[in-house]
Write a structure and sequence with these properties.
The chain is built from eleven helices and seven strands. The chain is an alpha/beta fold. Strands 1-2-3-7-6 form a five-stranded parallel sheet, with helices on both faces. Bound molecules: magnesium ion. Magnesium ion binds next to strand 4.
Amino acid sequence: MTGCEERACSIRRTVVEASRRANVGHIGSCLSVADLIATLYGGILRGAGTDDPERDRFVLSKGHAALTLYAALAEIGVLTAEDLVGFCGDATPLGAHPEHLVPGVDFSSGSLGLGLSIGAGAALAARLDASARRVFVLMSDAECNEGSVWEAAMFAAHHRLAHLVAIIDANGQQALGYTADVLDLEPLGERWRAFGWDVLEVDGHDCGAIAAALTPHTALPRVVIARTTFGKGVSFMESRLEWHYLPLNENEYHRALDEVNGALA
Ligand SMILES: [Mg+2]
């Protein structure tokens, strides 16, 4: 197991433990992006967790996966285990969606469809500052249902924002249905290409492939369509719609924990 894979497993364990403690859902969405976020925080994001103005920026557009971000920030020592114990409790900034008050969180998010606009603005700001910093936006696939995403896509292509990388968690699901049934997104890659983006498709659970897709590039904004499995790592959650919202009961918690711990063993 590589360091990135170990980090992803550790993040999954944190997600299972903290969501149970807080009795909250969005667990399947959090597990879907564990490998993507483990890779980003495993050396891709320069200056992650610092206040260096030249650090790369990260926008978690699918803000309901905040717990995965907090777990990654704990992996790199920006948050503590104690911070995670307080997740969704009183007197903590660690809520179900990320706020910029949390150490290491650059942008508040949670209202879907807005992250790419924020990222495009941050990438344009980097250019105006003559800065080499890059901007990464992690979106859900169903955010591509929203017109605001395509406005931002046109803006970024028009300005040739090569420091902007959109990563799409293409798990084929959204809150109340499968994307193919609700509003079909395919052919997703061709659509982004038609909007003037450099398009790559990867296995969203392959740390090496993800890292290779996130290397610096030139000329055009890049979108990485990461094919993922919703609920990845907990067998009874995988590709199951109900785990968008459900919290774990005691029995499910122990089954889930056994599976994520088994992956780490
Ligand atoms: Mg989705």
